[in-house]
Amino acid sequence: MAVLSAKHAIDTALEAARWAPSIHNTQPWIFTTSGEEISLRADPDRKLRASDTSGRELLISCGAALYTLRTAMRCEGWDPVVRILPDPDRPSLLARLRPGTEMAPDESLKTLGREIERRRTHRAGFADVPVPDRLIERLTRAAMEEGARLTPVRSPDAVRVIAALTQAAQGIQAQDRRFSLEVVRWARPPGSGRRDGVPAEGYPRRAARTDPDFPQRDYSWRHDWGSQADQRTETCAGVVALLTTRGDGRQEWIDAGQALQHVLLEAAACGVSAAFHTQALEMDLLREFLRHELCSDEYPQMIMRLGVTSDDKGSVRRSVSEMTM
């Protein structure tokens, strides 16, 4: 009976992992199973060639999938045994995990598990509703548990600096045809049957400016795609936060992804959504400026805004069979 239960936990974990967040919803992971072990690999065909030359964002996305696997398995009553980067000669093999000892999931863990499929990325402004300080403290602890640091940016001047860097990066990337074509490659037109990328209803056709303005990716570049939902009443930037790590290698990128998903699930359980801004982190000079001036020399892995929204968009994901080998 225990073997059957472990098999069920593996199947449940794989089903959950497909809902992990990823840059442009590229879903850049491959899962394989052998007996009672899951292997997580990076899918190089889904790497962003223009904006993610180092593969940093790819590994952050895969780290989020790893945390989702772990959480789902724990919700099924198994404490997973995880090995990250288990084989130096196989760089695409990011992790292996298997059910370990049996455990009894507590209610807080079950709450995170319920949010895996419900969590959504937001791509516009937020309502003028404060995010409780108590929740921010919980989110910082969640990131710390995974080996990263989440720092809310409390200084209005610092928030304006981060917004300005985002604006500068977006403006530069908008002039680069490679960046624009890459973004549009992962933007889905209305009625598309694809189960990856960002569906037309998942981003505003013309996003309203937040205060200060954090520009979104131009998924509707040279098209008239996107949601027509009126976002003019939701223009608050929300709480700006930086996710950082002490190092900046493959291990830290995976850690950052696990921390990111832990933070997102904790936030979603309290009705708080996140919007991401990675433009400035895709430009080495701007990322180094952020690191030295606002991150106490830690490496910025994600810029996000946290807030409350009435927007309730759908999402798309590939099936488990499309992600497994």
TrEMBL record:
SUPFAM superfamilies: FMN-dependent nitroreductase-like. GO terms for molecular function: oxidoreductase activity. Residues 208-219 have a biased composition (Basic and acidic residues). Residues 190-219 are annotated as: Disordered. PANTHER family: NAD(P)H NITROREDUCTASE RV3131-RELATED, NADPH NITROREDUCTASE. This is Nitroreductase. The lineage of its organism: Bacteria, Bacillati, Actinomycetota, Actinomycetes, Streptosporangiales.
